[in-house]
Write a structure and sequence with these properties.
- With 148 residues, the protein is an alpha+beta fold.
- The chain has a single domain, classed as PH-domain like, CATH 2.30.29.30.
- Helices cover 32% and strands 38% of the residues.
- The chain contains two helices and nine strands, in the order αβββββββββα.
- Strands 4-3-2-1-9-8-5 form a seven-stranded antiparallel β-sheet, sandwiched between helices. The protein has a two-stranded antiparallel ribbon with strand order 6-7.
- The longest helix is centred in the N-terminal third of the chain and has 37 residues.
């Protein structure tokens, strides 16, 4: 019985080690992809860790995903760990707001960075400096300026 428990724990440990190694590897690959993606653009906010929280606007994924987020003079770019590219052109941004709840979802202690576009909203978590993100996005956005 003891060997069965030890074997099970060892198997779980191996699985978690594999998952952690995979996430670190994917993180490096995604960082390289995002850097190449925005190379040559005027960068306002360098890539940093974030989470895509979904959208009410058509054409954007509904499923949350972890990855890297960056802002250039031309677009807000998010690259998921699974390699999917999500982008919001700066000239389509109508406003920016921060809220604890987005589309009925709450996550303990995090504020959503919500980008308002003509057809709906796109939400993200940024883990450092949400107020700086709001300031930078608001300064670039051509639409009505909103910070709620």
């Amino acid at each position: 019985m003891v060997w069965w428990v030890v074997g099970s724990l060892a198997g779980l440990a191996l699985i978690w080690i594999f998952v952690r190694v995979w996430f670190r590897h994917r993180g490096r690959v995604v960082a390289e992809q995002l850097s190449a993606e925005i190379d040559g653009e005027s960068i306002v906010r360098a890539p940093e860790k974030g989470t895509y929280r979904g959208a009410t606007a058509p054409g954007y994924p509904l499923i949350n995903n972890t990855g890297l987020i960056a802002l250039t003079q031309r677009r807000l770019v998010f690259r998921t760990l699974t390699g999917h590219l999500i982008e919001v052109p700066v000239d389509s941004i109508m406003g920016v707001r921060v809220a604890a709840v987005f589309d009925g979802y709450v996550s303990g202690g995090h504020q959503h960075l919500i980008v308002q576009i003509r057809t709906g909203e796109v939400a993200f978590y940024v883990f450092a400096g949400i107020d700086d993100w709001v300031t930078d996005l608001t300064a670039l956005a051509p639409g009505p300026q909103t910070y709620i």
